[in-house]
């Protein structure tokens, strides 16, 4: 069996839902870092989607939407501090969320005092939470799309002796992951490293942190395991 | 239900944190997603919880939705199915001996596919499913719609696990070939 067949069969069974728990968790984790597998999964979702019509619709409980709104947890923050970025972790939500499937989704709701930043028609500030799994954010990455400045802020990343954390941008059109530099410093780093990338690419890319030899990957390609990953989303007003 | 174009537009607004659009998406899609989740999980208490998580995820990931890759409904159904299946697999397999009634799906629970699968894609899939042997077609539907595992299918059809796996993979390969991509 070739790798291609294997990915195809695995993606098909993943979407069909017949993998057992361990296999399913393994695929959920692999799809985050294997574009070919991710693409095969999306194809199978498309092929089998009409089967979703088989089941009857069911009316959810009347209070379900209220509970969802409460979980999203917006509307309750105040603009009391114009300069402080408030981070609110929706811990309750993420504790129960599937760890692997949701690892890429941000678990922070970021609220900015609206007095400081008037709303703009196009979202210029994007944020990504890089994390190993739900509930353990390691780095906060913010990007200003207009000037393409990247800010990396450590949240809860533990330095590893003799190793460096290196940040990568991963997007289909870029081919291999591209380094955005080593992010060892214990304080916020701001750099124009994204200047070479188009806004579309920056917005749709995944961002991943690998553990590399001290000073960064010698080859320019990731050599260590992905320890944290995430995607950008617009900052909440 | 709102059209796919409308829901795509609504999701773009949700990506910009538009709560009114989110409420509309919920109104238009929640009965369908809840039906899918409930059918897989078979317990309202767990299904209620999962439904909430699914919409939280839709809120958080709306910016990831790409209308070139999937219809908005397919995208949301995939989120709902994945979350429901993760939940179902999280528990230990429900023992068929303990609760035969829970997972034993009477075959008349599966409607005639050609009547249910509508639209161009649905008709094509129904045609391709019709090309599968009856038992294998039923297995695909039970797996997709009801979340049956290989073990449960093996018990239901009285076949070894490996045979079920081989059948499933051959059926998938045949479907893929038939669907022409």
Describe the model.
The complex is a heterodimer of chains A (237) and B (181). By secondary structure, chain A is of the alpha+beta class. Chain A has two domains: 3-53, no CATH class; 85-234, Immunoglobulin-like (Sandwich), CATH 2.60.40. Chain A has helices spanning 3-16, 21-30, 35-48, 64-72, 91-96, 199-204; strands at residues 85-89, 108-112, 125-131, 137-144, 149-154, 163-170, 178-182, 189-191, 206-213, 226-231, 233-234. Chain A has a five-stranded antiparallel β-sheet, with no helix packed on it. The longest helix of chain A is centred in the N-terminal third of the chain and has 14 residues, at 3-16. The model of chain A is unreliable at 74-121 (pLDDT under 50). Chain B has two domains: 4-90, RNA polymerase sigma factor, region 2, helix turn helix motif (Rna Polymerase Sigma Factor, Chain: A, Orthogonal Bundle); 100-179, Winged helix-like DNA-binding domain superfamily/Winged helix DNA-binding domain (Arc Repressor Mutant, subunit A). Chain B has helices at 4-15, 19-41, 44-61, 72-90, 100-103, 113-116, 119-130, 134-146, 150-157, 161-179. The model of chain B is unreliable at 93-108 (pLDDT under 50). Chain B is mostly helical and 181 residues long. Chains A and B meet through helix 1, helix 2, helix 3, helix 4 and strand 11 of A and helix 2, helix 3, helix 4, helix 7 and helix 8 of B.
Uncertain stretches of chain A: 74-121
User: What is the N-to-C succession of helices and strands of chain A?
Assistant: HHHHEHEEEEEEEHEEE
SSE ordering of chain B: HHHHHHHHHH
Shape of chain A: globular
- Highest CATH level, the class of the largest domain in chain B: Mainly Alpha
Strand arrangement, largest sheet of chain A?
8-5-4-3-11
Total domain count of chain B: 2
Q: Largest chain-chain contact?
A: A-B, 60 and 74 residues
Percent of residues in helices of chain B comes to: over 70%
Mean pLDDT of chain A: 74
CATH architecture of the largest domain in chain A: Sandwich
Overall mean pLDDT score of chain B?
86
For the secondary structure, the number of strands of chain B is: 0
Total helices of chain A: the number is 6
Strand content of chain A: 25-35%
Provide the number of structural domains of chain A: 2
Tell me the CATH topology of the largest domain in chain A: Immunoglobulin-like
CATH class of the largest domain in chain A: Mainly Beta
Integer-rounded radius of gyration of chain B = 18 Å
């Amino acid at each position: 069996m070739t790798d291609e067949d294997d990915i195809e069969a695995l993606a098909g069974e993943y979407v069909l839902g017949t993998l057992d728990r361990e296999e399913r968790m393994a695929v959920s984790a692999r799809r985050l870092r294997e574009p070919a597998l991710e693409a095969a999964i999306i194809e199978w979702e498309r092929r089998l989607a009409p089967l979703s019509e088989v089941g009857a619709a069911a009316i959810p409980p009347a209070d379900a939407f209220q509970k969802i709104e409460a979980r999203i947890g917006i509307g309750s923050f105040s603009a009391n501090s114009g300069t402080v970025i408030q981070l609110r972790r929706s811990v309750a939500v993420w504790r129960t969320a599937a760890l692997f499937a949701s690892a890429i989704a941000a678990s922070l709701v970021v609220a900015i005092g609206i007095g400081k930043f008037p709303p703009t028609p196009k979202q210029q500030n994007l944020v990504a939470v890089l994390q190993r799994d739900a509930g353990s954010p390691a780095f906060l990455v913010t990007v200003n799309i207009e000037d393409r400045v990247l800010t990396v802020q450590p949240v809860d990343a533990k330095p590893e002796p003799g190793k460096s954390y290196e940040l990568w941008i991963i997007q289909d059109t870029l081919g291999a992951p591209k380094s955005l530099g080593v992010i060892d410093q214990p304080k916020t780093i701001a750099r124009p490293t994204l200047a070479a990338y188009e806004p579309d690419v920056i917005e749709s890319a995944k961002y991943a942190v690998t553990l590399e030899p001290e000073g960064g990957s010698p080859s320019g390609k990731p050599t260590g395991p992905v320890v944290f990953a995430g995607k950008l989303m617009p900052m909440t007003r | 239900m709102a059209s796919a174009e409308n829901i795509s537009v609504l999701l773009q607004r949700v990506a910009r944190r538009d709560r009114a659009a989110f409420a509309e998406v919920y109104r238009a899609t929640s009965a369908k997603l809840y039906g899918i989740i409930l059918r897989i999980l078979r317990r309202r208490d767990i299904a209620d919880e999962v439904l909430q998580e699914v919409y939280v995820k839709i809120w958080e990931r709306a910016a990831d939705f790409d209308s070139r890759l999937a219809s908005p409904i397919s995208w949301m159904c995939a989120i709902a199915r994945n979350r429901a299946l993760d939940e179902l697999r999280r528990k230990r397999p429900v023992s068929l001996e303990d609760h035969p009634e829970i997972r034993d799906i009477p075959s008349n629970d599966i409607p005639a596919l050609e009547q249910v699968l509508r639209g161009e894609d649905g008709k094509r899939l129904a045609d391709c499913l019709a090309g599968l042997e009856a038992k294998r077609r039923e297995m695909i539907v039970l797996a997709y719609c009801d979340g049956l595992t290989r073990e449960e299918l093996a018990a239901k059809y009285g076949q070894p696990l490996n045979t079920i796996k081989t059948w499933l993979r051959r059926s998938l390969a045949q479907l893929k070939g038939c669907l022409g991509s």
